[in-house]
Amino acid sequence: MKSLILAEKPSVARDIARVMGATNASRQSIEGPKYIVTWALGHLVTNAQPEQYDNKYKEWDLAVLPIIPNQMKTVVIKQTSSQFNAVKRLIERDDVNEVIIATDAGREGELVARLILEKCKLKNKTIKRLWISSVTNQAIKQGFNNLRDAKAFEPLYQAALARSEADWLVGINATRALTKKYDAQLSCGRVQTPTLAMIAHRQDQINRFKSTPFYGLDLTVEGTHFKWYNGQQTSVKDEATVKQLAQQLKGKPVKITAVKNSEKKQYAGALYDLTTLQQDAYKRFKYSAKETLKIMQSLYETHKVLTYPRTDSRFISKDVVPTLKERLTAARKSKFGEQVKAVLREPLKVNQSFVNDAKVSDHHAIIPTEEAPNYLKMGSRELAIYNLVVEKFVSVLLPAHVYTEQVIEAEIDGNVFKAKQQIVTELGFKALYETKGNAKALPFKQGERYSAAKLSLSEGHTTAPAYLNEGTLLKAMENPTTIFQIEDSQKAKTLKETGGIGTVATRADIIEKLYAMNVVEQVNGGLRVTMKGRQLLDLAPQKLKTPDLTADWETKLAQIEKGKYSKGQFITEMKNYTQQVISDIKKSEKKYKHDNLTATKCPTCDKFMLDVKTKQGKMLVCSDPQCGTKKNVVRTTNARCPECKKKLQLRGKGSTAVYSCVCGHRESQEAMDKRFEKHKKGRVSKGDVAKYMKKQRQDDEPFNNPLAEALAKLKLND
Asked: Site: Interaction with DNA. Where (predicted)?
């Protein structure tokens, strides 16, 4: 008899097959003497669409809403049905007596596998669970030595199913209702709508903000800068007051009235979860949340150098501690190789600042695996993210940063001036960023007097809060109380404890969806709500515009995971909630106005088209949401300008197409074709060029490659 192992993706399945001795590979599985390994290609089974319940739901009609099935159905996804059928045949084979769920260890991974198993015949078959956080050989072996009964994960599945069905009920109904009520493509949901509201709230704060000037007085003594203190303030709004004071104190002696030295220690802080990693990746490299997650998946699945990325924990459990040396050894050739070697020379010091079983949920923090990376196979972006994780990992194993904080107080004719400075005694973990400390001797003593001192006026203006960017938005989604004033203290507490709105795995997709819906745009790195977004927030039900719904959901989903709450009861509540939302939309007397309507008529249905901005350029989209006709107006291509090397924009199509650049360069399709042919002769085929360009975009090689530069100038016709 054999065991069937069900992985989530082919890459993970291949790793498991190699470790478990399965070598006979086919298109849909890998078989060995004891194990058969197959995969799910992500979701193979999903919630049925409304029209799969009743044909009357095929057309979007406000009158038939809300759509609330008595029993939720699931269906096999048509595009991947061949893989589902292969998995089903394998599960139902007579010589298979055991199924091992090896999908991602978490709520979504559990849902992927269980939906498949529910559509198969499992008579007299044992179901077990593989629960691992990395796909290295060692992790896989340890995982198979500690297989668990799948029954223990039944509550996790029920919570995942409850979340999936509730999002279907609310999202499908609210989106259809808004779209039909206002004849516009309007989508809302319990995560995306509050996220949009947060961006709008910050934008409103900035628009309402009025900058005011303030004035202060600076004192320089022996190269140290002091600030004048007016009570507890370092500035006043009246410039005349400061000027008068400066005139009064000019030339008067300075007396050091107090010197306070305090020994301080600063620790590195917790390890990375996905959200904090995405925030730092945006801050340092301007990588989008989606891009960082994609890179992380590659480092986890393909290179196997980092642990499971979709984690919300910033701690590791005690059972990981014995593997720390191996993980450090694997990272010796990283950017922080010297610091890694220094850590390995001493006994490792672990403490509760990063080792805490109670703070590890499904997966521990993101850390390096025991697998040494092959740097020749990693692109520059992969290398950047890998080094970021190694840096954080090494930092928690280094000593604290130790310094003396010196607060100096001086007086001139009774007026107080203060200075603060740090004298570093031990770099500790900051050795990762700095090469030496400030070893300057303590320069001031109480009672000292100075006759040579410089006074100067300082001026500033109050500044508005910054626009949210992808990094700070992720942080706000993790803790919405930093943006929203949530009056219910229990809900605020729940949101903070459960990780805010969305999950570490879905937040990047939510942000991308806001872009795709044209309700958010990026201006100079800051996120702004478009006119469409403003109207959507005005039209959406009030309950969907705050994180309160998520607070309620997460409280109950957590209880379902623990077996303390009924999934059936939760869904009943969501059905009632959905009915109320649809009722509110139907009763609304508000109007929607397209602010981007053009005079161009749709070639399909003859209605007017909308001018829509996308990340790739401008596009015309039919104003009828059910028509869906799209037409490119301006598209950013991969062809490079021969003058300034920037990407060219394409207008029109076929022989009349025109390529233009911001520098003023323009060329016709004919001229572009000639350039292409010139580079093509004696080199590679058009197909090879396309493949090579795709690889260059993925790898983003950090060195100058003459062939890549030549190919980057070419336009590949669709």
From this structure: 60, 168, 176, 310
What are the φ/ψ torsions at residue 559 (nearest 5 degrees)?
Answer: -70, -35
Comparing CA positions, the residue from 7, 181, 239, 290 lying closest to residue 582 is 181
Ligand-binding site membership of 8 (annotated): yes
Please state whether beta strands 608-614 and 597-601 pair in parallel, antiparallel, or not at all (unpaired).
antiparallel
Contact 130, 100 (CB under 8 A): yes
Distance of alpha carbon 590 from alpha carbon 177, whole angstroms: 13
Give the pLDDT band of residue 207 (cuts 50, 70, 90): very high
| 510 vs 520: CA distance, rounded Å | 11
Q: How far apart are CA 386 and CA 442, in angstroms?
A: 40
CB 56 within 8 A of CB 50: no
Q: What interhelical angle do 380-397 and 274-285 show, nearest 10?
A: 120
Q: Which residues contact 617 (CB under 8 A, 6 or more apart)?
A: 632, 633, 634, 635, 636, 649, 650
Domains, the chain, ranges and CATH?
2-146 (3.40.50.140), 164-207+467-587 (1.10.460.10), 213-267+401-461 (2.70.20.10), 274-397 (1.10.290.10), 597-712 (no CATH)
Q: Are 119 and 61 in contact (CB under 8 A)?
A: no
User: DSSP H helical segments within 183-273, as ranges?
Assistant: 192-208, 239-249
Confidence grade of residue 381 (pLDDT, cut at 50, 70, 90): very high
Annotated ligand binding at 548? The verdict is: no
pLDDT 10s digits, 488-542: 888 888 888 778 888 888 899 999 999 988 899 999 889 999 999 999 999 998 8
Interval 572-592: pLDDT, tens? 999 999 999 999 999 998 988
Query: Distance between CA 287 and CA 379 in Å, rounded?
Result: 14
Please state the pTM of the whole predicted model: 0.76
Q: Which residues pair with 621 in a beta bridge?
A: 610, 630
Q: Measured between alpha carbons, how far apart are the two ends of the chain, in Å? A: 51
Q: Could you give the residue numbers annotated as active site?
A: 308
| CB-facing half-sphere around the CA of 329: CA atoms within 13 A | 7
For residue 689, the one-letter residue type is V
